[in-house]
Amino acid sequence: MCNGSVDLVNVAIGYETDEGIRTEGWWTITSNACSQVLQEPLKSAGYYLHVADGFGEGRLVGDITLCIREEKFVVYDGDQCWQRGLIEADFFQIETGGAEDWTVLLSYD
Model pTM? Predict the structure, then answer.
């Protein structure tokens, strides 16, 4: 993932597993820098991304709601966030077309 914006961003990712949707975070990516978010080859045709600025404000609008935490996390199942003591966050979907390697360039005003 590459951050083409002028702001530091924090990224969380979600994807389908045999145990359900897994969300995990955080990766901090400084302005005009890249970071490898997942170390293994991609296995899913689609991934979900949540991008927040250094103040925790969402920077990109998505139409999928999944669960996150403020601190580093790994969470399974994206529903009933509040009941589980988690935070609801908007994620947007990235279609990888089944590729094992994919780069996302974040840029916004």
Answer: 0.87
